[in-house]
Amino acid sequence: MVCQCKTPNFKPEQEPVKMPLLIFSKLVLCIAICTLMACDFNSEQQTNFNPSETVFAKGDPNHYYHTENIYQFFSPVHALENMVSAHRGSRYYDGWPENCLESFEFILENLPAVLEMDLRLSSDSIVFLLHDETLDRTTTGSGHANQKSFENISSLQLLDHFGDTTDYNPPMLREVLGWSEGKAILKLDIKRNVPFELVIDEIRKADAVHRVMVIVYSLNAARVFHRLAPDMVMSIPIRNMEELEAVRDSGIPPDVIVAFTGTRETAPNLFEELNEMGIIAIQGTLGNLDRRAKSKGFDAIAKYFRKGAHIIATDYPIELYSFINN
Q: What is the pLDDT of residue 36?
């Protein structure tokens, strides 16, 4: 920054004259203004986020999202920019099956991520990771998962998206919760017939409240879950102004809400309204938007960060992260 302040000229070989008081005052004022501008410039370079509460070790091969205060982590004032949520952990990566602990490790070797996963219930009431109602598509087993004991399920091998058998097995939720400490924020998609109470109990036993967000699919479900666990963060669908007003009127505090704005293009004014309410947004790009990015370039979905989303949920987390950092 160049400070253009006029100073009095002295002719060579001439005795300096005393600086008039008015000129001296102007000079002091100019210096003061420049100093304030420099301080303001420096302050703009600083983040408001408290580094003692969050670790974001970018550049390290094992970089993680981690916080001791999840409400602050997901607040518009403090939230990190350009966060990536890996849908089902790893979906389209050769040799890395979805809803798999080893695949989560693979993702975190490539980027810091919110890890989304699906929860099912075995016949002996063990909560474990699986997307479908049946075992056929993603494991070497077959039949309905809720009709099998976890001992049976845990002996199965997981298949990747291309149908190839891997050496990995379906994990229990409690195993993943324990593993995630200090490493990742987990986004739990609780499937039908899995009681909220069982999941809440597992989260509390693992002391994992500050590293978990639970997905609910309706405002009614959000009300039920919030009554059971008022301190836990939820991802609630808020795809338009009508749903936003309903959430506003629900009485659920904004600090336990993250908005899921859907998998279609979100209107910028919705992001703005959410931000004013103290709620950050997840833009889903699963399906058509991801396919467009794969064919036309990842700015097709990275643009949602510029429009106001704090998190993008995608089936291509590595490609998106690479794009926004290069």
A: 42
